[in-house]
Amino acid sequence: MNKAAIDNQETFVLNLGPQHPATHGVLRVKLTMDGEYIVHAEPVLGYIHRMHEKMAENRTWAQYMPNTGRMDYLSALSYNHGYAAVVERAMGIEVPERAEYLRVITVELNRISSHLVWFGAFILDLGGFTPLLYAFDDREKILDLLESVTGSRLTYCYFRFGGVYNDIDENFVDGTREFIKTMRKSIPMYHDLVTKNIILMKRLNDIGPISKETIRKYGATGPVARGSGIDYDVRKNEPYSIYPEFDFDVPVYHEGDSMARYMVRMDEIEQSMRIIEQALDKLPDGPVMVAKAPKIIKPPKGDYYQAVEAARGSFGIRMVSDGTNKAYRLKLRSPTFSNLSLFSEACEGMLLPDALALMGSLDLVIPEIDR
Amino acid sequence: MGAYFKEIFTGTKSLFVGLGITIKQMLTVKVVTEQYPHEAPRMKARFRGHIELNPNEDGGTKCIVCGMCQRSCPSGCITVQGEKREGVKGKVLTKYQLDFTKCSLCGICVESCRPGAIRFSKDYNLASTRKEDYVFDLLKRLEEMNK
Amino acid sequence: MDSELIRVIAFLVGIIAFAALNAAYLVWLERKGAAHIQRRIGPKEVGPFGLLQPMVDGLKLMSKQILIPDGVDPILFRLAPILAMIPAIMSFVTIPFSETLAARNLNIGLLMIFAFASVNVLALLLGGWASNNKYALISAVRSVSQNVAYEIPMLVTVITMVMITGTLNLNEIVAQQPNISQWYIFRFSASPLMPVAFFILFICSLAETNRAPFDLGEAESELVAGYHTEYSSMGFGLFFMGEYANIVIGCSLSVILFLGGWQDPFGLFPGVWWFLIKLYLLIFTVIWIRWTYPRTQIYGLLNLSWKILIPISMFNLLLTAGFLKVF
């Protein structure tokens, strides 16, 4: 179909332009189509390139922390965590235990809120308008909780080198437990309304299969990889912070279609809630900031790397320091960039709405790709 | 053949279950939106509005014009000026200007202020049509607060 | 003045007013229904409970500039919205609102409604073709294939009903269902699959009017807005009103054929109110369905029609024929 069509010049180029309701952010995809089938897809990036990596060379280490919250605004705390962890590893700062627990609790809450946004937006792309609002209602509770601790609702700047900025109080603990109870009642409702719905099952089952080889070739991580049977989670395979102390599963599905990626994320919400419950039970007392917080941050010369599990995959930071108070080079490994790279290979020969369902299941946040 | 009928049956059942969920939400769940102009929301204690000067007991400012906030701001939006007056120990603040068009509400200025002279305000109704409205003169704001 | 002429004019004004008011206030009902399903309140500022909202929306639509793009077919472009609205209004002529309230008591009333429903397909195609827009044409062509596929089970079900009622006159069909046990949806002596026939007719009327979950043609079809992309102001308004008028026609057809029309469940005091109650319950169900389900895919939609609805309705037809012969 493809070769004959291209040779006969029967294809036309369709531009899924930067402004589009289905691509979440400014993504441009040049599609070569043969009728309704896609022959070739080429994502064109760079419409929201904000030069975060260059900004790191012009700001001191502490001044760069707000930038990390703006890259992937939906799961900003994971990015805060990655940056704080790599600088702490370079300088040898040890974070007090209570701060580590607070970090894990807030990061997992952020992960749940990111997955709720993905869930709502994905079903919105497929034409169901209501689950978006139910998901956002649940997400409001998380945002209120995190606002009472950090002061922001979306782009958090809460972690510091050596701990966190503010302590939590009893209201937060009670509110979080209340939220977990409500969420545990909502998730079966989502499964009844959305997952088991015959229309949705027809739209997601066996649509957009991605094989293991494709994932290995492009280096995709996160729920995209776990939906195709690759059991890799940075929290288990390269443990950091205090994740080894918690007992949680990593959901892995082997079919590789959009439904598998969907189910991985829904199960991850439940696992995050398990982590939060265990952390709240074990929360120790103590300081939230290391006792002798260094006033001037000047990591010793060298090359350091830290990977964390963000909501979209493995986010890596590589910092090269030359001993001054500004970075020499900061490289951000964006998980969504690798996830999007496999789109052009995976969507050949698909119908256009199916390709958009595939794009939705990859959970793209374009500002993170363009940094 | 059997799978065909089974799929029709489970599919139809799932459709009715979905309808049941939405009608239950419609009839039993209360409205969760805030009706904004009629009921204004109350901000939480740690809400990050733009910064403002923290008054001391006399209504004046605790600022010692050290310039830490100006130096530590990643976006360069704070301008602090002070002068030395006779009879007064230390510098006196004469101008504190915040260019809110560049501020990213990171809070590094609040954190780095040793005397605790600045704090977050709870203002959120800041819509305007002119850029000049966003250059806040915080000393003037402090005086208006004291009245 | 002839009393016949007065009657015709009164009905004309009445029907156009009913169609127009329905089109306007069904929008209000949809927005309110959608809002309460989604845990929020819909329009509430304009008038009490937002009841004046459709009026101001209509004023806004009328005050917009009518943009005619370059290169469109001049006659067809202007004809398509009119063709979308007229069949719906015409079909109201035969619908019996109560025993005496029917504009014309035609002996072929049912056939006339289906004849006009087919013209609706033509309006979509003309709208897509005349727009000189690649994407409008693609989605118009999809809508045509969807409409054709769903007319077949609808007609087969109606043939089944005609076998039972023996007449195409809508007023007589309602008169044959005096109380709830006689309503055709419960007429198991004619065929045990009567409720299934009702559902098939309901689903087909959803698909005929391009209504969610079958709204590939219009609602953000992942690409553009479908066959009415290039229309602005009252052109779009007419398509919109035509869609809601078609919903009213489809639902009133289901009410008349299966649910007893203007008859009440006990056979004591029939009247126009029963018809309106049943009609609006069905319309609320149409709105309820829109906000619950996601959209089907084009091949899922066609599979549903050709592989599921047509075999079942054909089987029902043969079963009914058999039962009527035997019992």
List the helices and strands and how they pair.
The complex is a heterotrimer of chains A (371), B (147) and C (327).
Chain A: H1 2-7, E1 12-16, E2 28-34, E3 37-44, H2 52-56, H3 65-71, H4 76-91, H5 97-125, H6 130-150, E4 159-160, E5 163-164, H7 170-195, H8 198-204, H9 212-218, H10 223-226, H11 234-237, H12 258-282, E6 302-310, E7 313-321, E8 329-333, H13 335-341, H14 343-346, H15 352-361, H16 366-370
Antiparallel strand pairs in A: 1-2, 2-3, 4-5, 6-7, 7-8
Chain B: H1 2-28, E1 51-53, H2 68-72, E2 78-84, E3 91-99, H3 108-112, E4 118-120, E5 135-137, H4 138-146
Antiparallel strand pairs in B: 1-4, 2-3, 3-5
Chain C: H1 3-37, H2 53-62, H3 74-91, H4 109-130, H5 134-165, H6 170-175, H7 194-208, H8 233-258, H9 272-290, H10 298-326
Helix pairs in contact in C: 1-2, 1-8, 3-4, 3-8, 4-5, 5-7, 5-10, 7-8, 8-9
C-alpha termini separation of chain A: 37 Å
| Beta-strand residue percentage of chain A | 5-15%
Distance between the termini of chain C: 53 Å
Major β-sheet annotation of chain A: 3 strands, antiparallel
Mean pLDDT of chain A: 88
Radius of gyration of chain C: 20 Å
Task: Describe the protein in words.
The complex is a heterotrimer of chains A (about 375), B (about 150) and C (about 325). Chain A is an alpha+beta fold. Chain A has a single domain, classed as Orthogonal Bundle (Cytochrome-c3 Hydrogenase, chain B), CATH 1.10.645.10. Chain A is about 50% helix and about 15% strand. In chain A, β4 and β5 (about 165) form a beta hairpin. Chain A is globular and about 70 Å long. Chain B has two domains: about 1-30; about 50-145, Alpha-Beta Plaits, CATH 3.30.70. Chain B is elongated. In chain B, β2 (about 80-85) and β3 form a beta hairpin. Chain B contains four helices and five strands, in the order αβαββαββα. With about 150 residues, chain B is an alpha+beta fold. By secondary structure, chain C is an all-alpha fold. Chain C has one domain. In chain C, α7 runs antiparallel to α8. The longest helix of chain C has about 35 residues, at about 5-35. Chain C is globular and about 65 Å long. Chains A and C meet through α6, α8 and α15 of A and α10 of C.
